[in-house]
Specification:
mainly alpha; about 475 residues; disordered C terminus; globular; Sodium/glucose cotransporter; about 80% helix
Length: about 475
Amino acid sequence: MILTTGHMLGMAVTILLIIGVGFYAGSKVKSAADFSTGGRKAGWPVVAGTIMGTVVSGASTIGTAQLAFQFGFSAWWFTLGAGIAFAILGLGIVRRFYESSVETIPQYLVKTYGTSIGPITSIFGSVGIFLNLIGQVLAFTALVTAMFGIDATTASVIGVLFALSYVLFGGVWGAGLVGVAKFILLYITMIACGITAYLSIGGVSGLMVHFPAYPWFSLFGRGFEKDFAAGFSLLVGVLSTQTYIQAISSGKTVGESRKGALISAVMIPPIGLGGILVGLFMKANFPATPSGEVFPVFIMQYLPPVLAGVALATLLVTVIGGWAGLTLGISTMLTRDVYQKFIRPRAAGKEALLAQRIVIIIVIVASAIIANSNSGSLILGWAFLSMGLRGCTALCPFLGAMFFSRFVTPTGGVVAALLGPLTNFVWFLAGPKGIDPLYPGLVVSLATLIIVSSFTKKKVSSQIGQ
């Protein structure tokens, strides 16, 4: 496949549009608060754009088509699980977190469990998100290599430059405003691809001719245990990830933040349907296609060249958006909860903003280097390990602080935040196969929080979430 003039034109227009929005976003950053939470001036479109611009990445587009090519509708769990998670976030968590007036999950936990839990959750949470960054780099490298025929190292260098320009100057405003523009383009892409695939295969009757009902049209086509774990991992990961919690802190009111989360919950699941239809069409007609190339191959062969160029550029920016948005979450936690707490307690204003931008550069470059040294690894392997570490570190202490702060204790929270991710990691390395490491990690975290809190004294201080 060769990129034509039409492809290049569509890509150029799309990338220039995204860059223009990014520069506009950068002009709105005047302080560290603007950078990390948008100065709490964002309306629901920016809140939703930040959320969707991060979660809708290579996994929810290229990855969904790839999994549908192999198993059918069970590929929907990524976007469906994310939609459910954001509905819970909007209905049950937004108000309590927003009114706490903090920026990060570790800051929220410190109010209930004391300062000891801050660096633990910041470090483990950052490591968990960083593992997902490696998957984003691998997805970007594979896409660019397939499109342009360049080597993986060159592709990753291009990715570093894009990721830095995406988030370095705009922070939440960059991730949010660019997320809105990208998501509009992505919806056009997914609708166009889904409709084209649906009509090309002959609609419902054509699908039924090519595929038996099970496993292709079942949400549990890979087995209940495996697919339920996939959906549950999205729920756990979303509720434990700084990027999404940070997004709801950027709204100018609780209502705007809640609306952004709920709109994300509605808008994200349909994205997966377009990818599923593309995967099924390619399976029916081109079963020998490498599964990772299903989506870009379909775009280049079946969409008009200019629209295909727009779609390809949107996919590139989608992967970069996930890479950059997660980096923003890491940089905020490390800057607020490590640098400003333990290294430079008096750092504020421009110094804090500079420190966060330096962390962003280090994280983006390091993720590219590690991805290059693991170029043959599975993207989903990094993603699942990432979800497990994030969930096992923060979920139980976070929900305990939010809804049961009268019963949990500092010692219980600290031990749970430490043993949960360690259990997850040990199980991943040496545990029995067939049981996702997420489950033993969460069980140990929850049991530790309850048992240790029952036998230790509560911190004497003002609590939140009562």
